[in-house]
Design a protein that fits this description.
Length: 88
């Protein structure tokens, strides 16, 4: 998948310009995007603020860390069960 030139923060800024009253054609020309791209952005993140746009990334990072911790804990438990199952 092609990486976008714009991250969430600039996208939200561009959408705010449209809400402020600038014509969509002018915004698209200034930023070098198509009308279809603008419409996609608007449908995906229309009412977001910059802090709202950063939130999914932070949640994904937190989820990744928690998943790693869970996997390590499960590995520790499995190792302990295996060690306790043997008679020394």
């Amino acid at each position: 998948m092609k990486k976008s030139r714009f991250s969430e923060e600039p996208i939200v800024g561009i959408l705010k310009k449209q809400r402020a009253g600038l014509p969509i054609a002018e915004i698209c020309r200034r930023h070098g995007i198509s009308d279809a791209t603008f419409d996609t952005w608007r449908s995906r993140s229309g009412g977001m603020e910059v802090s709202d746009a950063r939130r999914p990334k932070a949640l994904d990072e937190e989820n990744r860390k928690l998943t790693k911790l869970l996997a390590e804990a499960m590995l520790d438990v499995a190792t302990l069960r295996e060690a306790l199952g043997k008679n020394f």
